[in-house]
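Order emerges. For instance:

***
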Amino acid sequence: MSAVGLGRGGVPHVGGGAAAWYPTDSTSFEDFWDASVSGDFSLSGSNVISWTGRRGTHVFTDLSNPARRPSISAAALNGNDAVLFNGITEWLNCSTIDMPAPPFCYYMGFRYVTCTSFDVVMHSGSTAAMIGALYVTSTAATSLTMANGTTVGPNAGLGTTGVWKRVYTNFYDNSGGNDELLVGSTSATGSAGTTNAGAGLNMGARKGDASTFANIEMLFFGVAYESLSAPDLALMDAWVTSKYGSGLV
C-alpha cells in the first residue's frame, strides 16, 4: 500500500511520505485530478460516476447519464490507473470551474488510444466557444501548435495514437485571435479573449457535441488560473518522472 502524507493545506499525498512534493502543494493549481487515487472516484462497477479533484472542491461527473460514464483502465502506465473514454459516448463535465479570461494553464498526462478528427481531450466552453480546447484535427497530426499561447515540454507528436504524452500549456488573452491549444493546425473557430461563465470544463468531448468524442486514457489533469512558476513547473516535471517513469514523454 502506498504511504500517505499531508502536504501544504492538508491535501493528502499518495505514494510518498510527508516530505514528498505533490502537485497540490503548488498554490497555483485550482484543482488537480489524479486517476491513481481510487478514493476520489464514485463508481458503478468500473464506470466513473464522478471524479473529485484532490482539493475536494471540484468534481467531474456524468450528470447521472450512464451512457456518458468512462471506465477505469487499471495499471495503465507504470502501475498507475487511468480514466478511459471510449470515443463514442463518454465525456465528463465539471460545472464549477469556469475559465476566466486568460491567462490560465493546463498540465495533464494522457494518450490517444485511437483518433479520427477533431477529437477533443479538454474543452472549456459551450459548443460554440472553444476557449482552452485541446484536440486533434486529423489522424496524421504530428505536431502541437498554440494559437495565442505558449507550450512547454516534450509535446511533439501529441496526436500520435498509442503514445503517452504530458503537456503543460499557458493560455493568454489576445484580442486578435482565439485562445486555444491545437494539434496539427494553426487556426480554429471560437471566441477570442472572452470569459467562460457558466459553461464549465469538459473532459473527453466538446460540450454537447457528439462528433468530438475522444478515445483517450487520462492519467492526471491540473488546471490553474495563472501560469505555473518556474520552480513549481520543475517540481511538477520531477513528480511526473518519478511516478510514471520514462513512459510518459
